[in-house]
UniProtKB/TrEMBL annotation:
Pfam families registered for this protein in UniProt: GAF_2, GerE
Official protein name in the record: HTH luxR-type domain-containing protein
Organism: Paenibacillus hemerocallicola
Gene Ontology BP terms: negative regulation of DNA-templated transcription
Domain HTH luxR-type: 646-711
Length: 714
């Protein structure tokens, strides 16, 4: 602003020199922004009592004439005139240009600057020799010149404020994109940044599709806090329904403003913009003016940009929160699995589960009920009194048992009872045997969906260890692999899908290389857990062969992804190279040519993989392009496969699921189906699970019966 004030000072000096008047620019408190031009005060008197007296007198005049829009004449004493003209470089600030003094010729000869009784003395008389006497005809001319001078000064200062406004708005948008900060901070920053907005608020979405003003900056703040709107109600409710920004001009007489005017806010223009959080409406940002009848296009554009950046910031915060939450859960999962794997007895393991769930969920209690016999259970709990625990355990035992002693179900359930918090009850199952129930009290029922899948995974890990501790069987390496793969599906569905695609390619390719069966098994299992880092898997996998394969895979991918120069790569095992080869093949959208970049994989293995993929492609091509004769031959060869595509009474199944179900109708096992369809047995199991869920059945016999019922006849 110093540069613009320097220009204004030069302008005032020139005007004072030409007109003989003294000129001064002040703020709305009468404080000098420029040094006085001309001779209204003696030289070197810009400080001290004289300046303080002038500023005090000007402040009094401003208080009297603050509402004026144009220049006026102030009679500071009989016959002595001072000219004042406002300069408004922006909506929120008003400066005042003063010019004078002009003294009436008759007043000059008789008053010599004496003040009227009761009127504050204006210290102009100290500069009396320099004050110009005039005729009344000069007054209008001086007033017009003062007004024009104020307009020029306003234009010069406005450039600075435009630049400053752009800077403040840009800075605010930059801060928004980094995320963080409470809603109230952003509302206050918006109100401070947008000069045209006399008020800004945020109506947050609450339960029941209502929007409540949680944050507000502007007049009538106390009355507006807590004001609520329903969908479609008033300006805010309309935008909440449409989820589209809207701007209204000249709304002073609009009936929709009554909700504001009834609480002391009288808007003349208004804006409302939706603010989203991950595709869900978080609330409505609103604001406007109580003086300006319309909102400028530049302000409209900024408001929409602000809302868009705020939405991005909120979404970014949500993503970060989800990431941090998932990282916390993953870390907790690793620590818990490591702890339960080293548990010496079931009681100690139960305490691990209880303490982990209490720390993670922060509910009022957690307990583990272990089945000792049909009539006896063991309880480990925290947060439950003895009598309450005994009563609750009996209810749990009744819910999770059938009269024949069998299991009541395989999935976690939400238990809600009067006088009790909602409880996530997670069965501890292993090999179709119910070993116990893990019960986690929640703060609210909404946490059930948040923690259900995670707790099921941990419960499976716990159940497998309990089973081993009770010497009812040995826990195999495959259990840990399957558990880690299922956990991966919970945190990263894309990576989980990629592991199964990799396994479906790796197993037949490894067989084509005539690798030993034990090595093929290690490679197949490693495919399911390759996204995990070796450091993460240390201590979780009992097989050193798997750890070596995973370590080689990550070393190869690190070499390639870091763009290291082609050179002599360290010697890696076949398993690690094979998985790296398939991983990049899938990443390159199955482009065989791209495999030339994988210099860390031996040329022999790359050539063998190309031949393997070509052989699979040739078979598919023979089927597709064989012509009518080949098509007929194909149809005849497949005539033994049950055709259930036209059964309208069956629930919708995918093409692959219908193919698997057709194999089931032929009486084939999962392994036989896997070999027939050239997929892994695990993938067959996944298809069977999906088929059972869609058909609403629990086993193959029920599925076959439903197909017959739908109209299929062998």
């Amino acid at each position: 602003m110093e540069h613009q004030l320097s220009q204004v000072q030069s302008l005032l000096d020139l005007y004072a020199l030409e007109s003989g008047l003294s000129v001064l620019l002040t703020n709305d408190r009468g404080e000098w922004l420029t040094r006085p031009s001309g001779a209204i005060v003696p030289p070197n008197s810009e400080t001290g009592a004289l300046r303080a007296g002038i500023e005090s007198h000007l402040q009094q005049l401003i208080q009297v004439f603050s509402s004026v829009r144009n220049g006026i004449v102030c009679d500071i004493s009989p016959g002595v005139r001072l000219f004042m003209a406002p300069a408004r470089p922006n909506k929120r600030q008003t400066y005042y240009l003063w010019a004078g003094c002009l003294v009436d010729e008759r007043a000059a000869s008789r008053t010599q600057g004496q003040a009227t009784p009761g009127q504050a003395h204006f210290p102009w008389s100290e500069a009396w020799p320099s004050v110009r006497q005039n005729s009344a005809a000069d007054t209008e001319k001086a007033l017009a010149q003062t007004g024009r001078l104020a307009a020029i000064a306003e234009g010069l200062l406005e450039q600075e404020y435009v630049q400053e406004s752009h800077f403040r708005r840009t800075e605010l948008l930059r801060r928004l994109t980094t995320g963080g900060g409470a809603f109230g901070e952003w509302v206050a920053a918006m109100a401070e940044t947008v000069d045209e907005a006399d008020f800004v608020g945020f109506a947050a979405k609450t339960e029941g599709q209502r929007f409540v003003i949680r944050e507000y900056a502007g007049p009538a703040a106390e009355a507006l806090q807590g004001l609520s709107f329903s969908l479609g109600e008033g300006f805010v409710g309309q935008v909440a329904t449409a989820r589209k920004a809207a701007f209204w001009d000249y709304v002073a007489q609009d009936p929709r403003t009554f909700v504001f005017t009834g609480r002391g806010l009288y808007p003349t223009s208004l804006f409302c913009v939706p603010v989203m959080r991950e595709r869900e409406l978080a609330g409505v940002l609103f604001g406007g003016s109580v003086t300006e009848p319309s909102i400028g296009r530049e302000t409209q554009s900024f408001v929409q940009t602000f809302a868009a950046n705020w939405t991005m910031g909120i979404t970014l915060e949500a993503v970060r929160a989800d990431r941090d939450t998932n990282f916390t859960r993953l870390s907790t999962f690793v620590e818990t699995c490591g702890s339960i794997n080293h548990a010496q007895d079931a009681k100690r393991l139960s305490y691990i589960l209880v303490d982990m769930s209490l720390n993670l969920v922060e509910g009022p209690f957690s307990c583990v009920v272990l089945k000792q016999s049909d009539h006896k259970v063991q309880l480990v709990s925290r947060g439950l009194a003895q009598q309450q625990a005994e009563r609750y355990v009996k209810e749990v035992a009744a819910r999770w048992s059938k009269p024949d002693g069998g299991a009541a179900g395989l999935e976690a359930e939400l238990c809600e009872q009067p006088g009790m918090p909602p409880v996530l009850e997670c069965p501890l199952y292993y090999q179709n045997e119910l070993l116990g129930v893990w019960c986690i009290a929640l703060k609210h029922a909404g946490q059930f969906a948040l923690y259900r899948d995670y707790m099921i995974i941990v419960a499976q890990a716990g159940a497998s260890v309990i089973y081993g501790l009770w010497e009812k069987g040995k826990v195999g390496r495959g259990d840990a692999v399957q558990l880690l793969n299922r956990a991966l599906g919970y945190w990263d569905s894309y990576a989980h899908e990629m592991t199964h695609e990799a396994q479906e390619l790796a197993l037949p390719f490894a067989r084509s290389l005539k690798l030993p069966d034990s090595e093929i098994k290690h490679i197949g299992e490693a495919c399911l857990i390759y996204p995990y880092s070796p450091a993460f898997l240390t201590g979780l996998l009992p097989s050193p062969e798997q750890m070596e394969i995973i370590g080689d895979f990550h070393a190869i991918t690190r070499l390639l992804e870091e763009g290291k120069a082609r050179g002599s790569a360290p010697a890696f095992g076949v398993g690690g190279q094979l998985i790296a080869l398939i991983y990049f093949y899938l990443q390159f959208n199955r482009d065989l040519q791209a495999l030339d970049q994988l210099w860390a994989v031996t040329p022999e293995l790359r050539t063998a993989f190309r031949s393997f993929c070509d052989s699979r492609e040739v078979v598919e091509s023979e089927i597709v392009i064989g012509g009518e004769e080949a098509a007929a031959s194909r149809d005849n060869s497949a005539s033994d496969l049950p055709d259930i595509r036209n059964l309208k009474d069956l629930p919708p199944l995918s093409a692959r699921e219908r193919e698997v179900l057709g194999q089931v109708l032929q009486g084939k096992s999962n392994r036989e189906i896997a070999e027939q369809l050239i997929i892994s047995e695990h993938t067959v199991k996944n298809h069977m699970t999906n088929i059972f869920q869609k058909l609403g059945v629990t086993d193959r016999a029920q599925a076959i019966a439903m197909v017959y019922k739908a109209g299929w006849n062998r």
